[in-house]
Amino acid sequence: MSSTVSVNSSRAQQKVVLIGRPNSGKSLLFNQLTGLQQKVANFPGVTVELKSGSMKELTIVDFPGTYSLHSFSQDEQVAIDAIYQALDSDETGLIVCVLDASRLERSLVFGLQVQALAKKHNKGFVFAINMIDDALRFGHEIDVKGLSEELGSPVFALSAKTLIGISEFQQALPDLVKNNQDCIPSRVSESHDDVINRSRQLANHFGMNANVVLKQQNRIDQFLLHNWLGGLAFMTIMFLLFQSIFTWAAPLMDAVESGIGLMAGAVTSILPEGIFNDFLNDAIFGGVGSFLVFVPQIMVLTFIIGLLEDSGYLARAALICHKPLSFFGLSGRSFIPYLSGHACAIPAIMAARTIESPRKRLITMMTIPLMSCSARLPVYALLIAVFIPHQQYLGGLVNLQGMVFFCLYMMGIVTALIVSLVMNKTQFAQNDKSEMPFILELPSYRLPHWKPLMYRVLNSAKYFIKRAAPVIFMVAVVIWFLGYFPVHEGGLENSYLGFIGHYIEPVFAPLGIDWRYGVAILMSFLAREVFVGTLGTLFGIQGADENIAGLAENIQHDGLAFGAGMGLLVFYVIALQCVATVATIRAETGSHKIAWGLVAGYGALAYLMAFLVYNVLS
Amino acid sequence: MLHDTVWELPTKKVAEIVGLQSGLSDAMSNRLKEMGFCGGESIRCIKQCPFNGPKVVELGGAILSIDKEIAQNIKIKM
């Protein structure tokens, strides 16, 4: 057998596949092996797509965590299909099954299933017992040799967190791949019951006493899952999360703002006056620059969500939310997509795959766009700065602008819940009555891994800029040309843009806003943050103020009515203005009708609500 | 003999799992077994969320949260 496979194996079989249960620290191990950072989180089922990275000449592929080879939810089916594909593929040189040292029995159940498959497909197979630092902390040393003999496969004990055993494992991998036919499992469990019994026996013999690990966890849970203290803690954490977006990010935002101001001042003073100077000043610094100011807020939000994920709190939050959310036809598992929807709807919609029930998953996906994503931050921040005074209470702990921010986020969430409730009650969702039950494993509390977390924060900023900057740049340039010509001296009113704007003005007049805001709203159907860039360019051309980054002041001087401003905020809470989100919903649901229906539905609702707010407030 | 189920298990009490109710689908009972709900395992109730919310149990070194539907399908001996 080995002779047929080993032909050309050095070229073909270069792939090392990482498989394991959710939360076995597999993704962190992958990061340590490849140095390539990916999302590492302490919540079961975070990896929904395959990540690959290279280690010397080997390719390492990180598979989504699965509890079993019998799928239960869609993301598991994806993972299981991928595992079977990898087993069939000639490129796969070695399968590494990651076990959790502190939960040996549970991880072995899955490990033994995969081992049997590896044997069936003649693939090399090794076990990597991760998190042995946890075991060592409680004075338990795992008998690697004995366990390896019992399992019939090589076993490595390591810790991806503290790096124990990582370099040994890294050194051993190339040889294991090269001689992969030597590590085809020598004994495997055939039946399901055998797998379960053997896991228990092996864990009893080689594993650690789980009670010690759980003791510390239980103590924290006693507080965080307490009936009312836990609820209070949950509310406090969520409130601080939204407050911090404003307070922590403020100094950074000021820094970016003055940086852009300085740069604009320097550049425009060197260049001779004229069209090109005006273009740089209005379109580049005014348009593109005004949205860069909000990048720090996106980073702070990503940081805090990452912190909650890594620490293990998110699973608790999902548990706390399960009962309240099920009232609206959602599951506790909807909480994580909802929360990450506050950073960006696209990963959130993908994360909804972990919801077992197809119906709840669909409703969750359809309501995620109502979560105030980071693209709305620039719009909220701008309008709040225009209308809400900067006031502090309780010695700076609470500020008024932060509270309004919190209210806007809450409004999005409440709207999402109402929409869910309505969808749940209508015939739309009735075709699938079978309710999938709720099982959730609560991971141990862990300290976050700072390096991957920081990398994620930087990545979020990079991703946001990369995604939005080209669109904003193009819109800014087009808007500037339309607004600057045919005659600059005649002012904005007499430009091409003025004509177009006045043509569409009647549509936006009922909301109390003039044509400039109308143009900005229309442009922001590409992506919401374009709103700020467009207004920045428009006010830049008007030259209301030489201070380019002070767009909020310009709007204040210009005299936008309070009611209209609040109406605009409400509009942005509800409307689905993001081409990328629409594309993602279409891909995940496989339905154009749902995706564009949402754009139309939320658009109409947003318009109606903004109309009501404006008329009530003025 | 009629057994109690995990749903009846009071907070902070330990019981031994007897087995799963017979009405469960294969997929469901396989998954529950894989999660550790097997006969002979001891299970401890850590918390009952208010308003008939999910139960939090300790089982085989892990903390799991299960809703009423599942809890009522796991037979125990107190």
UniProtKB/TrEMBL annotation, chain A:
Q: Which UniProt keywords apply?
A: Membrane, Transmembrane, Transmembrane helix
**Taking every annotated instance into account, which residue ranges of this chain make up the domain FeoB-type G?**
13-179
Q: This protein's superkingdom? A: Bacteria
This entry's Gene Ontology molecular function terms read: ferrous iron transmembrane transporter activity; GTP binding
Q: Which Pfam families match?
A: FeoB_C, FeoB_N, Gate
User: Quick one: a GO cellular component term?
Assistant: plasma membrane
Q: Which PROSITE patterns match?
A: G_FEOB
Residues annotated as transmembrane = 223-242, 248-271, 283-308, 335-355, 367-388, 400-423, 468-487, 517-539, 560-582, 594-617
Known CDD domains for this protein? FeoB
Stated name of the protein: Ferrous iron transport protein B
TrEMBL record, chain B:
Q: Which residues form the Ferrous iron transporter FeoA-like domain?
A: 4-78
Which InterPro entries does this UniProt record tie to the protein?
Fe-transptr_FeoA-like (IPR007167), FeoA_core_dom (IPR038157), Transcriptional_repressor_C (IPR008988)
* Gene3D superfamilies for this protein: 2.30.30.90
Q: SUPFAM superfamilies in the record, alphabetically?
A: C-terminal domain of transcriptional repressors (SSF50037)
* GO molecular function terms attached to this record: transition metal ion binding
Signal peptide bounds: none
Q: Any idea which UniProt keywords this protein has?
A: Iron
Q: What is this protein called?
A: Ferrous iron transport protein A
**The species this protein was found in:** Aliiglaciecola lipolytica E3
